[in-house]
Amino acid sequence: MNRLELTGLATRPAQVWGGIRLVPLVRERPVEGLRLHEELYADQGYGVVDLGPRAHYASVIPHGFVADWSGGGEQSAAYGTQLGAPGSRPRTARLQRHRHHRMAKRRPGDRLRFLPLHLALEGYLALHFGGPAVAWEEWSRQALRDGLSPRAEDAYLGWSVRGLGDALRVFEIHPGQCGVMVYAADAPAAAFVVPHPDDYRVLHPSLVEDLYGELIHQYVLYGAPVPEFSARIPDGPGLRTLAGLREAARAQERAWAEAHDTLFAGELLDTSYAFDRVYRMGSFTLWRFLPPFRTGGAGQHIGETITDHKGQVAYLKTFRLSEAQIRRGHLLHRLAAADWRLAGAAEALGTTREELVRRIRAAGFESLLRARS
After folding, report:
1. pLDDT tens column, 9-45
2. What is the rounded CA–CA span in Å between residue 260 and residue 236?
3. Beta-strand (E) ranges in 222-353?
């Protein structure tokens, strides 16, 4: 498994609001045997996750997802929910303190609580986290003792991405909709997929609580509105009947779906990823994935997914990295491949040792270097 495949999901025509484009994804049949529901947290969403001895992850964590593979059917969708005021977003009954143990933790029965997007972001932050394994003279005592700790990255809550909240509120949810592709100035910002339409209706508003990269925030803030989807059916002999008109309309939908899957979503679906298995849930598996960190190319994404035994995507959530984040990932890969020897890494990168030191400092890793490097 090294690619994302949205088998079983069909694309519907885009919905546009300013610089935001939403592309609904619908299923002909829900994924059987898996349901998702939301678990909200108090204290404005700030949370800390204990990852292990002396390792912690801190971020805004407004909610968690609970995957249920018990086969409870309709009862699963209602598990943990409570009624709210008319028009309010469905919320869960349990509001917990924000000290989490692990990114993914088994719950009683066939249930797993995990922290959406943070599972993927922690995987990116942990990239070669240990730092140099050999005490080469170029690295500081801190690098040898603590590695890349602490390491931080910036992101924006969906509330601050202009137009996203309005788009999610205004546009209809299609029958059978189980996901959405979010574009900012027609750049892929995020993909979100769930196993069942009822799950999507509950979790649809949670997209404004997700994290988005700096580039996405800038694209919407400074970019122009994107063109709306429009279908033009030329007149002809095939349009003399209602059936002919219906077939022409369906042909336009197919043309849009093909254009979306090959052009718009190409950078997400045509990339080869490194998948890391997080938890096996009966016939389902929770993974997180990282891109190849190639510089100078198309945008790259990190994320997490749940697949069934056939590899079909039941759940998906992605985060688009900025160019700076891609460069940091690329640099760490090269350093680790060279056993953290600056001379060897510089040779692999086709540059000089001095230029590599400059790149390390520009990437925010200056504290790893000895003062004289």
Report:
1. 999 888 999 999 999 999 999 999 999 999 988 766 6
2. 26
3. 274-281, 284-290, 301-307, 313-320
